Amino acid sequence: MLKAGIIGAVLGLIYVMGLTLFSPFCTLCLTPLLGAAVGYLACHFDRPPTQPQALRSGLIAAGATGLVSLAGQGLAAVVNAVLVTNSPQLPAMLADFGLPAEILTDTQQYWQTTLATNTACGLVNLFIIIGLGAAGSMVWYNRHSAEMGIGD
Question: Domain spans of the chain?
Answer without folding.
Answer: 2-148
